[in-house]
Amino acid sequence: MGILDWEFGQLYRNVRGSVDWKQKITxxxxxxxxxxxxxxxxxxxxxxKWQNTFCILGIFYPPKERQMHLx
Length: 71
Fold this sequence. Notes:
Structural class: alpha+beta
Number of strands: 2
Largest sheet: 2 strands, antiparallel
């Protein structure tokens, strides 16, 4: 499954010349996007020509809100 998110493409362009580019991308994902303070959502879609092939169009990661009490 491919990732078409603009933010990830720009991140790759910023770090592609460095030796540890894979680690920098992993750190960005694990520290800023998939951290316990955030709740990431993947925006999925497909391409009209290949309707059974899905790709990640974007990632939305708002701050995680504390669940309110029921009573």
